[in-house]
Amino acid sequence: GAGVSQSPSNKVTEKGKDVELRCDPISGHTALYWYRQSLGQGLEFLIYFQGNSAPDKSGLPSDRFSAERTGGSVSTLTIQRTQQEDSAVYLCASSFEPYYEQYFGPGTRLTVT
Amino acid sequence: EDQVTQSPEALRLQEGESSSLNCSYTVSGLRGLFWYRQDPGKGPEFLFTLYSAGEEKEKERLKATLTKKESFLHITAPKPEDSATYLCAVQAMSNTGKLIFGQGTTLQVKP
């Protein structure tokens, strides 16, 4: 079956612009996670969805970051007023249920100029 | 604070030269320890989950083991296609399933 997909694969934006990153999880997976991977920081958790609810938003670095999930499926991560330090690869993962193994998408590479 | 430390940061092996990667962790109640493989420009690929000390899992040339403080990923007779970054992550009982990752070990296997 299809794996986790993410779009766009690459995004270059100017400082101060807003960006939206999309994640399509594996069909039937109820849990969805966003992570960020940057040089020197490794993979960092951002937010967790169970269905359409986000019971854990503890990793969002600032109020410029928000995310939503609709229909228990697609999720969008929005970054407002982007800053250069937001440059990173944003990875989405899904799992059948929380605590099961997570399957990752290919990521979106965000570059803020 | 939950924490994962991987060593070495980088490892170069000759084809056929077996070795081990280390993952040390501190966590407030371990639910599971996960190993992933990541190739350049791609997302992490799931390899193994270990749940309790003494557990072992194998896949082709890879074998993962778990103790109360660390996990090892043993690579037997590696091939060039095993070259990748190997990531270790822990999941705590107290959280919502999020993974806490180590910095990874970048493995290069030369023919």
N-to-C SSE string of chain A, H for helix and E for strand: EEEEEEEEEEE
- What is the helix fraction of residues of chain B, given as a range? under 10%
Global geometry of chain B: globular
What's the alpha carbon Rg of chain A, rounded to whole Å?
13 Å
* Poorly predicted residue ranges of chain A: none
- Assembly type of the chains comes to heterodimer
Q: Major β-sheet of chain B, in short?
A: 6 strands, mixed
Helix content of chain A: under 10%
| Average pLDDT number of chain A | 95
Question: Could you explain the architecture of this structure?
Answer:
The complex is a heterodimer of chains A (113) and B (111). Chain A has 113 residues and is mainly β. In chain A, 0% of the residues lie in helices and 52% in strands. In chain A, strand 5 and strand 6 form a beta hairpin. In chain B, the strands form two sheets. In chain B, strands 2, 4, 5, 9, 10 and 11 form a six-stranded mixed sheet that branches. In chain B, strands 1-3-8-7-6 form a five-stranded antiparallel sheet, with no helix packed on it. Chain B starts with a strand and ends with a strand. Classes of the chains: A mainly beta (113), B mainly beta (111). The interface between A and B is medium-sized, with 25 and 24 residues.
